[in-house]
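Whiteboard transcription, Tuesday session. T.W. wrote the structure tokens on the left side:
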């Protein structure tokens, strides 16, 4: 399975959650405006146990964030969402899907027709220090990671443009476009591997009440399912999983 796409799906959730979890004292004064705008745009979902991010459209591998509005129809995935409820989540972002019921996690790449399955594994504090992406990204944000880039018109909408950079990931950055009139998040554009992946935001709200996060897969080890190649790590020892990462 394409590691870039696995990381991409995970980062969508991490980036949204992480910006919301920041407190004002973590941000240096020159980034305060960027923080205030994003904090309002996210509506405090970082403190919520259950929330949803709804997408109008998603496109991959474009040269400008605004290209999402001029792409051929077949290159833009319409709809999509990220629902989260504590340890449970569901992400559907075009060619990538991920589902976790609090015990099992499944990631699907529609383009490659591949699927990764794993159990949620308990890790020691020492292990988490090396792989806790939320902690890493949080430190980067507090170390001048956010910057206000001014106002830009996108698809006839006037937007605040905010950039997030990560010292630990020099070839990766994110632009957030927030409507000046409504204060709502409009676009999120991730730069990686010489192009942008762009997420057109419909709204940020609560996840549907009583949403079913169940993962329905065979309990035995599998290599293929519904025509997908499966990488089933549920029965692999913790030590081997750690080495593979």
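and on the right, the sequence the group agreed on:
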């Amino acid at each position: 399975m394409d590691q870039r796409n696995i990381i991409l799906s995970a980062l969508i959730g991490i980036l949204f959650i992480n910006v919301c979890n920041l407190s004002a004292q973590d941000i240096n004064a020159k980034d305060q405006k960027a923080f205030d705008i994003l904090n309002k745009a996210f509506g405090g979902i970082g403190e919520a146990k259950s929330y949803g991010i709804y997408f109008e459209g998603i496109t991959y591998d474009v040269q400008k964030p605004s290209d999402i509005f001029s792409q051929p129809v077949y290159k833009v995935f319409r709809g999509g969402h990220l629902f989260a409820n504590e340890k449970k989540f569901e992400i559907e972002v075009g060619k990538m899907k991920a589902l976790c019921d609090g015990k099992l996690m499944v990631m699907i790449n529609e383009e490659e027709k591949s699927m990764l399955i794993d159990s949620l594994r308990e890790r020691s504090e020492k292990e988490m220090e090396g792989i806790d992406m939320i902690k890493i990204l949080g430190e980067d944000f507090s170390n001048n990671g956010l910057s206000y880039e001014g106002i830009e018109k996108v698809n006839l909408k006037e937007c605040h443009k905010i950039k997030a950079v990560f010292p630990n990931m020099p070839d990766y950055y994110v632009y957030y476009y927030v409507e000046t009139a409504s204060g709502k998040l409009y676009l999120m554009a991730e730069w990686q591997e010489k192009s942008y992946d762009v997420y057109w935001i419909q709204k940020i709200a609560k996840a549907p009440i009583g949403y079913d996060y169940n993962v329905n897969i065979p309990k035995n080890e599998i290599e293929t399912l519904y025509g997908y190649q499966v990488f089933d790590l549920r029965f692999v020892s913790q030590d081997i999983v750690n080495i593979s990462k």
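Someone added at the bottom: Confidence is low (pLDDT under 50) at residues 1-10, 123-144.
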